[in-house]
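hey so i finally got around to running the thing on that chain from the lab meeting. sorry it took forever, my laptop kept dying and i had to restart like 3 times. anyway pasting the input first so we r on the same page abt which one it is
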Amino acid sequence: MKELAKISRFGLGLLLLFGVMLTSCEQQAAPSQDVRRDATVIAVEKVMPSVVNLVAAAHVTRVTGFDGITRDIFTDKTVNYLGQPLPIQERPESVGSGVIIDEAGYILTSLHVVQGPDGPMPSRVAVKLWDGREFDCDPMVKIPEIDMALLKIHAPHGEKFQPIKFAQDNDLLLGETVIAIGNPLNLGGSVTKGILSSRGRILPMNGGPLNQELLQTDAPINEGNSGGPLVDLRGEMIGLNEAVLTNQQGISFAIPVKQLQNAISQFFCPEVMNHIWFGARVEAGNGPLRFNFVQPDSPAYQAGIRVGDEVIAVNNQSAQNPIQFDRLICGSVTNQNLTTKLIVRRKGENYNATIPMISFDNLFLAKLGITLVRQPYGIEIATVMPDSPAAAAQLRPGLILAGLDNQPITDLVNVAGRVSGATNGESIFLNLFIRQVNGSYLQVQNGGADLIVR
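ok and heres what got predicted. didnt touch it at all, straight out
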């Protein structure tokens, strides 16, 4: 009986061991996840909500007679010499891609995606998101030198969008897998894959080389991919799809992330976004936020801000990137108060800086004695103060400011950049369009005036 009991216990043990082994084999046979969801698929799922399809609509102006002669002198081609709108029709000008870089709906894209053949920004840009929602966009700023443009989605107050994450600009590996996402041939949401083939390519474009060094990839990039992101397997943007060599295969180009970060630093500053003279810019990137430019004699410089200072706090809040930095500076600005407070770190010590910023209107009044207003046909002198440099140069309201020091200007930011840097006693030459009514005719002449900055 004792032997039988031993055998029974031994048999029971074998059965239990066999059951454990069988269960283990079944668990190993069952996949822990879908094998199709590899790193590429996961990266695409992460990035797709940040990619948008763009359609830029250009105004086509029908012009006859005298209007066709005089409109060429103005910056806006859709009005006559009196500033009255000309008959227009609207048609799609280009179809391309863009990428959301901030939850408020700011979009980065290539300038050639939204800019018409004759140079002006489009009248309207429509954007379609990955989930099918459609919005209108405002063209905000452009940097022609690096073929970049910034747009802003028209959305209900409080609406937030998913921004893409930027890769580190010094962490690009030749041969690593890269993914291009965009709107090629108006086929929205297309994904292609390749490798990072090279860095530092200089590509001839529109008769001359682009200023930046480009990334080269063999990921297929077709017409309409421009402005979309080139991402790595982490789902982080390493570049903005830019161009492809005609009649070639496997040779495409993207603007590198370092150039994108530099563009963002230029876009998001108080001067561009709010027409306020601050006089310093922070460097975009993955590290601490630091000042990489401080204009001499600017409000920031006079408050003690210097190149290399690390930003600790803006109005007692933390800023992680130039977009947040600009938002915190301008968010507390009112007509009565243009003061912002910073805490910066220099050589291991913290410093407090109170910066009384200046509006463009007050800047132009203080330096030149004029106010300027952006009209459809150009930048117009609105007022001239008595006993001012402008009055001494016999300027008058209604003159059109066409350039400074024989260099064309496109917006008030250009004017502020030149005027803010001028010192007391310095001369600035104003290129002007002078409109004079002679009976039933309007004569438009080129003119100019030297102003001595005060």
